[in-house]
Design brief:
The complex is a heterodimer of chains A (454) and B (87). By secondary structure, chain A is an alpha/beta fold. Chain A is 39% helix and 11% strand. The N terminus and C terminus of chain A are likely disordered. Chain B has 87 residues and is α+β, with helices and mostly antiparallel strands. In chain B, the strands form two sheets. Chain B has a two-stranded antiparallel sheet with strand order 1-4. A two-stranded antiparallel ribbon of chain B has the order 2-3. The longest helix of chain B has 10 residues. Chain B starts with 12 loop residues before the first strand and ends in a 12-residue tail after the last strand. The chains are: A alpha/beta (454), B alpha+beta (87). At the A-B interface, helix 13 and helix 14 of A face loops of B.
């Protein structure tokens, strides 16, 4: 399925990644490794066109979840008029994701370089970095990095670090736009997503933090270099967060297309996995029969999944698929922004259906009711939150068909009462991704700690 | 009521619901049952298909009569023109 053999490849998290706590000047270390970002002079159209061309040729896709071609945003913003603002989205509302936090803690200058390059390419007048208010380590790191750059007058465009409230949907780009505009942090209803979002009368280019870090490396080393890793369809490396039933949960940098089994092997599974959640809690379950599938959009599509935000959560052998699905569904129901009826009422109804099946409290109609409720939330919110929840539950019905049948027949399995290995309550509760270490290349566990990845 | 600017043929209109604005009054399903059904919580389900010519007038009325102005008629293919119809 793929020829990639090395499970990890260090680019963003390269071997010489510095630990901020032990360096006088992380910026000097960054500049020694990568040199200054190759910024064009402001308003240089030739440079901007060349930059956009290189990003397009690289095939870079957004690493925040949707996975769209990164260069398209440059094209959209180029014709938007006004003075654009580049928004670095490091909100990372997915509770099982820690990659943006890890990146900002260990390589904030790559992200900030990417933001400056993007700002130059679209003639933006401002850069803002949005870090959720419950991620103090990432915010502290990026604030320090911004301060260093400011004192050296490195950046042509002013950068501010902002702290929106950390909730699951707060990082959805229209929610971020509305927060920046002082109108709460909730998703907007957009009939045409090709029209740029605006805040403070500026058109916005919103990129995930990791996406911008890749931009900074592509700008330095070129599209061809970027494509030396990954597959033809999904080039480059990507950050994944492995959690659940593994001994070494944490953030890894892997080549796109790396088989799922190789990725989770790096995190040391505690047993033969029963299934994985891939892409996030709005992603998909993948059964243990498909662990050879590569982590790329094309390969994951063959099993109904997407790369999403790079989440890989491992369910241990013997898990109850119904119980785990019900837990995630209830979590997703609680994360609604509370705006759209089908999400506000539909997601709790789906969770209730699942909990009834979990308990064995079923009628002949239970499965049909659940199926109808799933179909009734898809595409019916202002954002894709209900779609994600529906996708996860739909995938569970496929992957855990036997478990569901047993529960529906009134025979809950022995595992149904076990505690979950999944991470909930966000990065916000103790015990999540505990002692998660950040690993890349030949670094050994413990060489590099991603701050306190609670 | 005039068709949105940029729309040559009113038959290209499609129906959508602003899910944030919608508060499940349900008038749209009463007026336009051919195109709007309600989910189990009373919120309208539309499939985004083209409004047949004989229903365009009643669809416009339904959009106008929605207390939350949540029923949206938009022109197919002209993604930049979709907006609330003014009465």
């Amino acid at each position: 399925m793929t020829t990639i053999t090395a499970p990890t490849t260090a680019r963003l998290l390269s071997g010489r990644v510095y630990d901020h706590a032990h360096l006088d000047s992380p910026l000097d270390a960054h500049l020694a490794e990568h040199g200054a970002a190759p910024l064009g002079t402001p308003g240089d159209q030739h440079w901007a066109a060349r930059h956009a061309g290189e990003i397009e040729a690289s095939g870079l896709t957004g690493r925040g979840g949707a996975g769209f071609a990164a260069w398209r945003k440059l094209e959209t913003l180029a014709s938007a008029g006004g003075s654009p603002m580049v928004v670095v989205n490091a909100m990372e509302g997915e509770p099982a994701s820690a990659k943006d936090r890890a990146l900002l803690c260990h390589a904030p200058h790559l992200v900030l370089d990417g933001a400056q390059l993007t700002a130059a390419a679209i003639n933006a007048g401002r850069v803002v970095v949005c870090v959720a208010d419950d991620q103090p380590d990432a915010a502290e790191s990026v604030l320090r990095a911004v301060g260093e750059r400011r004192s050296r007058r490195l950046d042509p465009v002013v950068t501010d670090v902002l702290r929106p409230e950390g909730r699951f949907v707060a990082g959805e780009e229209s929610a971020l736009a509305s927060w920046l505009d002082g109108r709460g942090g909730k998703p907007r209803y957009r009939t045409d997503k090709s029209i740029p979002l605006r805040a403070k009368r500026r058109p916005l280019l919103v990129h995930n933090a990791e996406t911008l870090a890749h931009v900074s490396l592509i700008s330095r080393y070129g599209a061809r270099w970027f494509r030396e890793a990954g597959t033809a369809d999904s080039p480059g490396t990507t950050l994944v967060t492995v959690s659940g039933a593994v001994e070494r949960p944490g953030v890894l940098e892997v080549q796109m297309g790396t088989p799922l089994c190789d990725i989770i092997y790096e995190a040391v599974p505690i047993s033969r996995p029963a299934a994985l959640i891939v892409g996030g809690y709005g992603g998909s379950f993948i059964g243990s029969a498909h662990l050879r599938v590569g982590f790329s959009a094309k390969e994951l599509a063959t099993v109904g999944a997407t790369t999403g935000s790079g989440v890989i959560a491992v369910l241990p052998h013997g898990s109850c698929g119904v119980a785990e699905t019900a837990r995630v569904a209830r979590y997703m129901a609680r994360q609604t922004a509370g705006q759209c009826g089908p999400c506000v009422f539909g997601l709790p109804a789906i969770a209730s259906s699942l909990e009834q099946i979990w308990r064995g409290d079923v009628s002949p109609e239970s499965e049909a009711v659940l199926a109808r409720r799933i179909s009734q939330v898809i595409g019916r919110g202002a954002c894709r939150h209900p779609d994600g929840a529906a996708r996860l539950v739909s995938s569970a019905l496929r992957v855990f068909a036997d478990d569901f049948a047993a529960h529906a027949a009134g025979h809950p399995c022995g595992a149904a009462g076990r505690p979950s290995v999944l991470t909930f309550g966000g990065s916000r509760s103790a015990g999540d991704l505990r002692a998660g270490d950040l690993r890349a290349g030949d670094l050994r566990a413990g060489d590099l700690r991603a701050g306190d990845l609670r | 009521v005039s068709a949105p600017r940029g729309v040559r043929r009113p038959t290209e209109l499609r129906l959508s619901v602003d899910p944030i604005a919608c508060e499940a009054f349900g008038y749209c399903a009463e007026l336009l049952g051919e195109m709007v059904t309600l989910d189990e919580w009373g919120y309208p389900i539309v499939d985004g298909s083209q409004i047949p010519p004989h229903l365009v007038a009643v669809a416009k009325k339904a959009a106008r009569d929605c207390p939350r102005r949540a029923l949206v008629l938009s022109a197919r293919g002209s993604r930049h023109r979709s907006h609330h119809l003014e009465g």
